Amino acid sequence: MKRLPLVACTSLLFIACTDDGTHADEVGEDTATSTTADTIGESSDTVSEASTTIGETSTDTGETSSDTGTSSDTGTSSDTETSSDTETDTTETGEPCGPECCPGDFLCLEDTSLICNEDGTEWIEDQYCDDVQGVVCAEESGQCEGACSEDALGLSYIGCDYYPTVTQQIDGYNTAPLHEFAVAVANVGNEDAIITIMRGDMMIASTVVTGGDVEVVVLPWVDLLTKTAGPSILVTDGAYRLRSDRPVVVYQYNSVASSASNDASILLPVNAWGPEVMVASFPHWANTGLVGFYAITAQQDNTTITLSPGPMSGTTQPGAGVAADGTGEIVLDASDVLQVITSAGDLSGTLVDADKPIQVISGHECTNVPVNITACDHLEESMFPTQTLADRYIVAPPVQVPNDAQLKAQIVRIMAIADGTNVSFDPDQGADQVLNAGEFFELPMSTAAYEVSADHPFMAVQFMVGQSAGFGTSDPAMLLAVPTAQYRNSYLFHAPPSWVANYVDIIAPDGATVTVDGADVGGWTGVGGSGYSVAHVQLSNAGNGNHEVVGNQGVGISVYGVQSFGSYWYPGGLDLDIDPQ
């Protein structure tokens, strides 16, 4: 829906606030008494007419202006530089109002909420109230209201506006109907959620997800983003836009039911996006031509992206404004996708900076983990904004399948976003070191669980090892560890019941009480001296795939599953508070 140009607001300002700084509704009944655009005049023509009279004659305040910049209460100009503005209205905090409006006040202009700027000189756009998301601009408050409004949602993995994005996949595993790209939409509330999925201006799918239920929606592959090995590319309207009129949780599967080469990502709603993201990936596989990637999606037009490779980053296949060394400045419009592809080395440590919030999904087309252990599998995960990272994580390996009494080995990568980051482990892993921004190191294949902490925020990335390593049947998958500062007391999440086995791993403070689908969790194992313990719980495949974890304290969860050789692994959810330390 097109937003109205704010030139119309110029007319509204003189009706909503008089030139002496007072609100019109405080001057008298002869002036405009409503703070909404709808009730100011019978039509837009009335608003325009009001604006053209400014400077000639005025409303009951009697104020007119001239080139001398003077005014009087009689409505005539004088040659003396005086003003009747001896008193001004004040805000609720007692601060004086500006010449046009009171700072912090809100006003509705149809489906847009406006806010008065800090010096009270003009109304500026605050939020667009999207009726597709069930959000309206409320006349009394002048603000967007509804279950999907920004204020109602807060900062977490639960939202109403998502951008599913197809990513690079090994050819042969990206053709429907045998291999399908899909999203799972889990309704976290009790009321029905109306789901709308578009690509550009084209409607792709719509459905209703009942309260507490989940629906898997298959979406067409975007060939330009998946059936290629390069070069780096910008695809106009390359992402899908999924909107709901009730809060939901969304995951994407690439692909959803394959026996090999698949992974899944938790999608972050736009209310939790940030302007800066660091990439975590895996090295280009030179012998096979299989590539690492990251995909950037914009939510707003004219989003300027700046790419800054880290000191350990490899090279890219140039294209779409991306240079061979990985640098670039590119402008994206809403729903555009820039996918950057390796030519050699590893894209990890690249900093993606933007002037508006963005989504970044990164991973690998199909890779061994480690590189000398078969077999390859697709990797992908949504990257957390750097402003949501923290300085403490608990890292725990998953279990094996079919012998889930044993742990599956993993490789862990620690990545710094600030210079001079001192990293340490409990129990000691013999890997304490200092990293600068964009640098990373790997801990070798291990089944150890530990606390990793630092004196600056950083990232911890976990990779399942391949089946030939001797730790169960599944091949690699990728997980971003969740910082303890972003743990929650409750989660609703989805695990596809069509998979052979699904698990949730729970990290909780020692002594915490936790339930999964109403059943108490036991079998806790302490993690060094961290004060946290880990439990592995197999999930029932008998239902619709929706599950709930509830704790009496904040806990962290990761969800994973196995389908023959294929696997997926993602955070079951998290808060995304800014600077959570």
List the helices and strands and how they pair.
Elements: H1 7-16, H2 24-27, H3 44-52, E1 106-109, E2 112-116, E3 123-128, E4 136-137, E5 144-145, H4 150-153, E6 159-162, E7 181-187, E8 193-199, E9 202-209, E10 214-219, H5 223-226, E11 233-235, E12 241-254, E13 263-266, E14 274-278, E15 292-298, E16 303-308, E17 315-316, E18 328-332, E19 337-344, E20 351-367, E21 377-382, E22 390-395, E23 410-416, E24 421-426, E25 433-435, E26 440-446, E27 450-464, E28 478-480, E29 488-494, E30 501-509, E31 514-516, E32 519-520, E33 525-526, E34 532-538, E35 546-563, E36 566-571
Antiparallel strand pairs: 1-2, 2-3, 4-5, 6-12, 7-10, 7-12, 8-9, 8-12, 11-19, 12-13, 14-20, 15-19, 15-20, 16-18, 16-20, 17-19, 20-21, 22-27, 23-26, 23-27, 24-25, 24-27, 27-28, 29-35, 30-34, 30-35, 31-32, 31-35, 33-34, 35-36
